[in-house]
């Protein structure tokens, strides 16, 4: 793993561990972002405009998570590894679950992706906190709060009677 010198006072061993953890969540974040766009582009049905706009807003937030995580990797002297090849090889998210165009199908698929991602990010909070990197834990906490909010927004479309 390529590393760059830094005057950051976290130990080299801790920085290396956090770079690995952050890069793992980075590939998941990029995968989630592409799943949001998949839903945004392909949704159909009577709730089209509401879902189309919602999925785009989720994507915009996830894009911010991608930057937060990637920039933390670089702050620690690492290289952010977010290439498409790396994402396809290393993402822990399941492949996007919707193949049709119905709004409900995309809501189901995206809510599942958000829930899985949220679980991974919460595990990242615990790992970073146990390791002693409060800043990385704080970034993951911010991402977790946002992910839970967007999961709530998306799942609300499953909870109304039809």
Secondary structure: elements and pairs:
Layout: H1 12-42, H2 48-75, H3 84-90, H4 103-131, H5 134-159
Helix pairs in contact: 1-2, 1-3, 1-4, 2-5, 4-5
Short characterization:
The chain is mostly helical.
Counting helices, strands and paired strands, the structural category is mainly alpha
Q: Counting H and I runs of at least 4 residues, what is the number of helices?
A: 5
The CATH topology, please? Ferritin
| Counted beta strands | 0
CATH superfamily: Ferritin, core subunit, four-helix bundle
Report the average pLDDT across residues. 95
The end-to-end span amounts to 52 Å
Strand content is: under 5%
| Count of all domains | 1
CATH architectural group: Up-down Bundle
Query: What are the secondary-structure elements, in order, as H or E?
Result: HHHHH
Which stretches are poorly predicted, pLDDT < 50 over at least 5 residues? none
